[in-house]
Design a protein that fits this description.
With 210 residues, the protein is mainly β. It folds into 3 domains: 68 residues, no CATH class; 60 residues, Alpha-Beta Complex (Type Iii Antifreeze Protein Isoform Hplc 12), CATH 3.90.1210; 48 residues, SH3 type barrels (Roll), CATH 2.30.30. The protein has 2 helices and 16 strands.
Length: 210
C-alpha cells in the first residue's frame, strides 16, 4: 500500500519485513539505488505491530540520508515483523503450547512442543530483555501455535549447581562461574556464590546446552 503524496517521495503507511533492520526502500518508494539499502532503524523481535508517528519516520529517514525529500504526512507508520520460516524443518525453532499457559508464565521447554514453522505467532508472548526469556502476555490454550521461540531446556536446578552468570554493561558482556546456594526455577531468582565468595541474587534462565 502506497500513500501518494506530492512534492517528495511517498511514505509507506504500512510495511511488513522479515528482518529487524528497516531500510530506506522499506519505508519509501522510488529511493535511489545508492540509498535504498541503507538501514534507517531496528525494530524489536516480535510479531505484533510497531507503530511510529509518520513525522518521526520522516525525521529518521532524513537523518540517515541528508537531503532526502520525503513528503510530510500525518498518522502512524505501522511496521510488522514476520520472520521467514526456515526451509529445513529439522532446524525449526517454532512451537505450540503443550498445556494451558496463564499470563506471566516464563516459557520453558516443558511448556512447548516443537513443530515446523508455519508463519508468525499470535503475539501472545513478550520478550523479557532483562531476564532474556519469553513470558506469556495473553492467555494461551494447549495447542496454540506460538511461532518461533527460544525456550530454556530445564525448569529447575538444585542447590550446589555450577552455572554461568552473565552481566551486560553497555557493549560489554561479563561472564563468571557461580554456584547456586538454593534450588531455583527458570524464570525466578536464586542466590549464588562466585569464586571470590561474594553472594548475590540473580534471575535464573536455564538454556539448552549446545
Amino acid at each position: 500500500m502506497l500513500m501518494t503524496m506530492m512534492g517528495g517521495l511517498a511514505l509507506v503507511p504500512a510495511v511488513t519485513v522479515s528482518t529487524r533492520d528497516l531500510r530506506v526502500r522499506d519505508l519509501v518508494r522510488g529511493a535511489s539505488a545508492a540509498t535504498a539499502d541503507l538501514v534507517v532503524l531496528r525494530i524489536g523481535d516480535r510479531a505484533v505491530p510497531t507503530r511510529l508517528p509518520a513525522d518521526t519516520v520522516v525525521a529518521l529517514l532524513r537523518r540517515r540520508v541528508p537531503g532526502l525529500h520525503v513528503a510530510p504526512t500525518l498518522g502512524d507508520v505501522t511496521i510488522w515483523y514476520r520472520p521467514l520460516a526456515p526451509t529445513n524443518a529439522m532446524a525449526s525453532t517454532c512451537a505450540t503450547a503443550a498445556r494451558d499457559l496463564p499470563v506471566g508464565t516464563p516459557l520453558s521447554s516443558d511448556d512447548v512442543i516443537r513443530v515446523p514453522c508455519s508463519g508468525a505467532g499470535s503475539g501472545s508472548l513478550r520478550y523479557d530483555a532483562r531476564n532474556r526469556m519469553n513470558v506469556v502476555r495473553a492467555p494461551v490454550a494447549a495447542g496454540d501455535y506460538l511461532g518461533a521461540v527460544n525456550v530454556p531446556a530445564r525448569k529447575a536446578v538444585a542447590a550446589g549447581t555450577a552455572l554461568t552468570l552473565r552481566a551486560t554493561v553497555g557493549p560489554v558482556r561479563i561472564e563468571r562461574r557461580v554456584t547456586t546456594l538454593q534450588p531455583g526455577r527458570s524464570g525466578g531468582r536464586v542466590f549464588v556464590r562466585d569464586d571470590g565468595g561474594a553472594v548475590t541474587s540473580m534471575p535464573l534462565l536455564l538454556e539448552d546446552a549446545r
